[in-house]
Amino acid sequence: MPLRRVLLKNFRNIEAQDWELKLGLNVLEGENAQGKTNFLEALYYLANGKSFRIPDTSSLIRFGEGQAELSAEVLQSDLTKQLLVKLRPELREFYLQGKPLSRLAPVQECLRVLVFTPDSSALFRGAAGIRRRYFDHAIAVHRPAYGPLLSRYQRILRQRNQLLESGGPAELEAGFELQWQESAWALMQERAAYLQELRDPWRRNWRALCGEDWPLEMAWEGPLYHNGPPSLENLRAALEKVRAEERRRGRSLLGPHRDDLTAKLSGHPLREAASQGQQRMLVIALKLAEAELFQARSGMGPVFLLDDLGSELDARHQRRLLEILGEIQAQTVLTTTQRKAYAALSARTFQVKEGRLDHFEG
User: Lower CB count within 10 Å: N or C terminus of the chain?
Assistant: First the structure.
């Protein structure tokens, strides 16, 4: 699964770059505001079809240009697969082996790219919607059937809300309600199954990374979980209780769109019990757990992107993280302003200046 050769054209401040990565550790060194993170962003976009920084595709295209192109050689067993992405202000196109793709699932079967940035540690401090979007994406990558299921639920939810807002006929409302119940329940089951897979590797990586054995618990929570694990019967009963209030407010008050994945340390919410350093390591442990799930499913290691790692972890925890990434055969790309911090490691080092990347050593 590693990325071997990457070609970038008109992406952010990168005019044209031919980039050959090492299978292990790759270090991008440069002063601030030179474009180091742009290279990570390009790698992330290749596998995930979106930026980890902004939602607007047009901002990713180099100023004054009409199109950006990202391409990569992806190693899968003894095969090399060619991936190409074309970005225009209102359009994006994906190709694998020269064939256009309507969905990213074929790419994500052979390429898993995870990223940790200084903003990542806010995952469990922010609003519930941030976590829903994060885990919806993670589940869709790991369980390809989840993406279409989520899209169907969101479509039915919009239609149901329109009906509630307009005060449509009861017969039509009943029809949408049955579809909504079935779709909501299927989505909740998929989320629960993913969390069951994720739970043990998340705990294990938390212990391996920080050396602490404080109890780590995680669970989905929301209005439908107040009386214990939800069931389809409980969902229907809960819906009946809020039916009049939903009609009055003109929107759906229950369902997966209101749920939140919460994590607790020693029985207390992370935002209350964990220090900022612990929260960073808990998020990194989560991403390591996602990497393990990908490796178990595909037999291949992930690509791990670490932006400005030195500002987030001390030297001891950086070394431990890089050791773990080596153990799971991850291809790692990290950015730094001081390559000396990684001089003792076997790494390929690149110098980044004004959107240009030069091979320095390794």
Answer: C
